[in-house]
Amino acid sequence: xxxxxxxxxxAYKAVxxxxxxxxxxxxxxxxxxxxxxxxxxxxxxxxxxxxxxxPTSKMTHEQALSVGIPLSDLDKHPVLDLAIDGADEVDPxxxxxxxxxxxxxxxxxxxxxxxxxxxxxxxSKLVNHLGATGMAMPVEIVPFCWKFTAERLQGLFEHAGCVxxxxxxxxxxxxxxxxxxxYIVDLYFKSELGDLNVASDKILRLAGVVEHGMFLxxxxxxxxxxxxxxxxxxx
Length: 235
Ligand code: DER
What we know:
Mean pLDDT: 97
Structural class: alpha/beta
Largest sheet: 6 strands, mixed
Radius of gyration: 18 Å
Low-confidence stretches: none
Order of helices and strands: HEHEHEEEHEEHEEHEEEE
Helix content: 25-40%
Strand order of the largest sheet: 2-1-3-6-12-13
Number of strands: 13
Strand content: 25-35%
Bound molecules: D-4-phosphoerythronic acid
Shape: globular
Number of helices: 6
């Protein structure tokens, strides 16, 4: 099975939890896009009715419109029934790294407003400790004096051998700009982060920081698709 087939299997399994009448948080990324497509298909077939979607990015907003999912927002629906979204890393406690697609702020706002949050991944996303794979830990920051904020972020985690890099567009080297007009600084760690809540508080205390990509204690259900099949883990 290809990685995309595994992502589709996990996404379709999550959509089995969607009931007519639900207000849904619609995730962003290559895994969540399969769930959005499936929801649209079931609506079209009349197998699902009265669904309202709250998208977690402009990209998902466009996709949901194209597959016919009626859309709304958190102002009109401050509490959602269920969110389905992917993740970049999942640890054994269902803590996540998200944001390598750049949508972490709206994802965290929407998923934080949901009664249930189902994370859908292929097995390659499972890790023992967040941030230990040497992959990016995204932090959304304001563009004003971004270098100053990046250096302060790097300084916070000197003990973990942290390097902070402004995310740029490959072609032009211009800074990547989020749906909210902000920049992303990616943090790379050489050793373990330690207590994730302590790390989270340290990051959020910096005045130029908007939000980070650690989703701690937010997911309620994990659906993992692997070579041996798909498994569902409730928190
Ligand atoms: O960037 C994001 O937050 C995405 O949801 C990411 O966490 C998962 O993206 P993927 O399903 O394309 O791997």
